[in-house]
Amino acid sequence: MDRGLFRWYLGRMGSVPAALVSLGAVALHAAVSQLAPQWHVFGWTSFGVSVVAVVLNMVAAAWLRILERRAEPGWLLVHAGLVVAISSALLGGLVATRGKVVVREGDASERVVDSHGDAIAKLPFQVLLQDFQLEESVPPLTLVDSAATEIVFRKGDPVLELREGAKGRLRGIEFEVLRYLPRAELDHDTVRASSDSFAPPAAFLRYRKPGAAEESVHQGWITCGGNTIPTITQPAGAVRLAMALPPAKAYRSVVTVVERGQKPREAVIEVNRGLSLRGWTLQQLDYDKLAGRGSRVSILEAVRDPFAPWVRIGIWTTLAGIALFALREWRRPT
Amino acid sequence: MIWDLFPAMASVHLAANAAALGLVAARRPKAATVFVATAAGILVAFLAGIWLDMGRPPLRTYGETRLWYALGVAGLSLLLHGRTRQTWTLVYGTSMAALFVGITWAIPESRSRELMPALRSPWFVPHVTVYLLAYAAATATSIAAFLDLRRPVSGGRNLDALLAATVVLLSCGLLFGALWAKEAWGSYWTWDPKETWAFLTWAGYTGVLHWRRARPAQATAGAWSLVALWGVLLLAWFAVGYLPGGANSVHVYAN
């Protein structure tokens, strides 16, 4: 290609107006996706073309600045990093495999399935689920309408966690948690601590209704109920004091990775801590929500994206460039 | 619970900001900075207290993030005033901090000590604090742009510096979020509604930065865009859940 023509092309393609038009086109698609989510804008060819135009613009601008020897290190790193990250993400989108591995305690699986449960890939190793562990937070107190048996918690009501010794006031009802059992069971009419790891928690409350005299103080157990004890609530006028279901604090899968010709090895997969092996990354995605702490099923997300490391390199390069750019701007006189 | 002390803290904070505003009006900016710093110090102590009391970073709910934003604008206004000596920076710091603490007081929220599993990450604090600083810088940028439209000062250099700071912080927030999303959900970017609006905000400010540097003679159009972009930022921060695509966002922990 003629050198002059190539320079002319770089000058046009790498110009700021071209950058604004291409970035604006991506932004327009993004805005439309929010106003009309049913259109699946990110699958449109025009969206892909807009993203490619952004990348070409940055490549041309960088090339031009290098040729003209006016590429500042910060500027160059930001744009080079973005080119690497976006290009790798685009290529990854074309070749990556993403699915789920559903595995039960005691079973092993290598099947990667899609959202319909159809197999889409096979892991080069097997994942044996030894144990699915779920830690629950201390459940909060809630109020249930006695007549409608509905939760009547309002936005702005304080979340009063049922920790032992906790005191609080909810809609004028004063209460104190005298005892908290992380696992409880019913023995005849007595609530006591349970050794069953799937037993629900229970709390023993002392509470006073609004405006009531000291002698009208009540006491009683509340629990969200489970396999060892039925749900128990306490009456407090038009409402009943109840225990909300304990929210999940953390959950993880203790797995054994079995590979042909290799010694089996144990690993832990949890939210924010995946397992990368043989080009696949496994993330903790979900579990049997109905069973809660008693879930024996773990749902892992399996991703094979050969370009993912390049996206990471691109992001860190961009961050390094941003740091240099910020330093330069800070030194600029105001 | 330390949160129970919020009305008392907010009262002192608002009084300190009102005093600072009065001193600015009386042309005593140096004394005003003392009150702005006092109000910021009160917020720092309160945020540290609720962090220790709840055993988690107070960065989860809208109310909590509003307090960090109030702290960010106060810190930024002191920094800007130190560098430029312009009094509008103090008016911005006091009024925005007071407004956002006042909103937090007016809109009660549920307080919980717990964090959902996805938020238990080393990226949580840097991602959210960088974003709130970015929002504080973006607000200052929009105000500076509005003032620049009426009476240009320093040839727009202060505005350009603020805009650069906004883009730097927004970019860091966006990229920290991408790195965190990869660890939590296996993807750097999924065009989740919150991510989409964060991108739109970033694209807007980044576009204007490029425009102003390439076409300094036509900076007015860029300045008007900066005023309008503050609306996009507020939408990205508070209103995503109310938009058609927002209901499916995975960022529901902010509600």
- Which strand order spans the largest sheet of chain A, edge to edge or round the barrel? 1-17-16-15
- Choose one word for the global shape of chain B: flat
The helix/strand series of chain A, from N terminus to C terminus, equals HHHHEEEEEEEEEEEEEEEEEH
Number of domains of chain B: 2
E-strand count of chain B: 0
Radius of gyration of chain A: 29 Å
Span between termini of chain B: 21 Å
Which two chains touch over the largest interface? A-B, 56 and 58 residues
What class would the helix/strand composition of chain B place it in?
mainly alpha
Which structural category fits the helices and strands of chain A? alpha+beta
User: Number of DSSP helices of chain A?
Assistant: 5
What distinguishing features does this structure have?
heterodimer, A: 334 residues, alpha+beta, 17 strands, 30% helix, elongated, B: mainly alpha, 8 helices, 73% helix
Write the layout of secondary structure elements.
The complex is a heterodimer of chains A (334) and B (255).
Chain A: H1 3-13, H2 16-35, H3 45-67, H4 73-95, E1 97-104, E2 108-113, E3 119-136, E4 141-145, E5 167-170, E6 173-181, E7 184-187, E8 190-193, E9 202-208, E10 218-223, E11 234-236, E12 239-243, E13 248-258, E14 265-270, E15 275-277, E16 280-287, E17 297-304, H5 308-331
Antiparallel strand pairs in A: 1-17, 2-3, 3-13, 4-12, 5-6, 6-9, 7-8, 9-10, 11-12, 13-14, 15-16, 16-17
Chain B: H1 6-25, H2 29-54, H3 62-84, H4 88-106, H5 124-150, H6 157-185, H7 193-214, H8 219-239
Protein described:
The complex is a heterodimer of chains A (334) and B (255). Chain A is of the alpha+beta class and 334 residues long. Chain A has 3 domains: 3-96 and 308-331, no CATH class; 98-135 and 249-304, no CATH class; 162-246, no CATH class. Chain A is built from 5 helices and 17 strands. In chain A, the strands form 5 sheets. Chain A has a 4-stranded antiparallel β-sheet, with no helix packed on it. In chain A, strands 2-3-13-14 form a 4-stranded antiparallel β-sheet, with no helix packed on it. A 4-stranded antiparallel β-sheet of chain A has the order 5-6-9-10, with no helix packed on it. In chain A, a hairpin with a 5-residue loop joins strand 2 (108-113) and strand 3. In chain A, helix 1 (3-13) packs across helix 3 (45-67) and helix 3 (45-67) packs antiparallel against helix 4. Chain B is an all-alpha fold and 255 residues long. Chain B is flat, with a radius of gyration of 18 Å. At the A-B interface, helix 2, strand 13 and helix 5 of A face helix 6 and helix 7 of B.
